[in-house]
Design brief:
With about 325 residues, the chain is an alpha/beta fold. The chain has 8 helices and 13 strands. The protein folds into 2 domains: about 180 residues, no CATH class; about 130 residues, GMP Synthetase, Chain A, domain 3, CATH 3.30.300. Helix 3 links the parallel strand 5 and strand 6. Helix 6 packs across helix 7.
């Protein structure tokens, strides 16, 4: 009996290994094109899709290939790109989708649905909107863009998953970048409008409030000459107005002037800058006459406590500092 069980276990292991190597599609992954990322760009006559795949013939594990197609729709362009491949595409390991620069909400929604239907089951897809400063065409730049965006994700602990575009019927927030710094683009789906943050600090505060990041790492404007890094946790309270408590842990502040200002002075300067950017976010995203949508989920807390929100949103930011080793 034990011998039969042992043989059965080995058979099941062999079957599972075969499914894994074949991507559960009957063809070995070594004979398929393993897609790591998809890039969309828009043109006057339609769209271009570039699929970035692993180069399995290279000894360099980071080596990659690109396949490009164009079409009147994003779906047609994707299909055209896939048709240029030597093997069948495998999307199970894809971890990045980049939307066109200046992407509208209807187009973002169309691409999100295309990703969900085509790339399933790729659970770790991160979504970005391409920085409009990137020069077209981007086909030859996609390997570098991929590396830069994945490095940005790791450095900033930033992740905007595909599900973000389906979670809220009224709003959606997506980072805009080509690597390095990033902005946050907020869609108002009902009004079909979009607003983008205007500074790295505002973008990082917005990403933290959206739950897409847990890291602050930026250089403040030239007049402050200050850089700061910290792990960030956010807590929202609603004791009448909205109070946002931002706890910064393992804080590193760096004076970029030769004056060597005291740390307490740097903390005051950073807190003042963060509060200015937070107030600007609230005004830009919620307006002065009351919010039409709730992009940062701040009104949610007021509605749960008081049943409704009236007039302009009143919100304040409080920073709590913790040095390395502190609780």
């Amino acid at each position: 009996m034990a011998g039969i069980m042992h043989k059965t276990s080995r058979l099941m292991a062999a079957v599972l290994l075969g499914c894994l190597l074949a991507g559960c599609g009957g063809q070995l992954l070594s004979h398929r094109e393993i897609v790591r990322a998809v890039f969309f760009t828009a043109q006057d006559a339609g769209y271009t899709v570039t699929l970035l795949t692993s180069d399995q013939q290279s000894e360099d594990s980071a080596a990659c290939k690109t396949f490009t197609g164009s079409g009147a729709t994003c779906a047609a362009a994707w299909n055209a790109a896939a048709q240029t491949m030597n093997g069948q595409p495998f999307y199970g390991l894809m971890d990045l989708a980049v939307l066109p620069a200046g992407c509208s909400w209807p187009l973002a929604e169309e691409i999100a649905q295309l990703l969900q239907s085509t790339a399933r089951p790729a659970p770790e897809i991160a979504v970005f909107v391409l920085d409009p400063a990137v020069q077209m065409p981007i086909q030859d730049q996609t390997p570098t863009l991929y590396e830069n965006l994945k490095a940005l994700e790791e450095k900033q602990q930033l992740h905007c998953g595909l599900q973000t575009l389906f979670d809220n019927a009224e709003t959606a927030a997506v980072p805009v970048s080509a690597g390095g710094e990033y902005a946050m683009l907020f869609y108002d789906t009902a009004a079909n409008t979009a607003r983008q943050t205007q500074s790295p600090l505002a973008a990082q505060l917005a990403a933290i409030l959206c739950g897409q990041s847990h890291r602050l790492d930026c250089t403040l404007p030239d007049d402050l000459y200050l850089a700061a890094k910290a792990a960030a946790d956010v807590q929202v309270l609603a004791p009448g107005s909205v109070r946002v408590n931002l706890t910064l842990r393992d804080v590193e502040r760096k004076d970029l002037t030769p004056a060597a200002r005291p740390d307490a002075e740097l903390q005051v300067a950073f807190s003042a800058a963060a509060n200015r950017e937070f107030d600007g976010l609230i005004t830009a995203l919620y307006g002065i006459n009351g919010p039409d949508a709730d992009p940062l989920d701040l009104c949610f807390w007021l509605q749960n406590r008081y049943g409704s929100t009236q007039g302009a949103l009143r919100a304040e930011l409080t920073l709590h500092w913790h040095r390395p080793g502190e609780g």
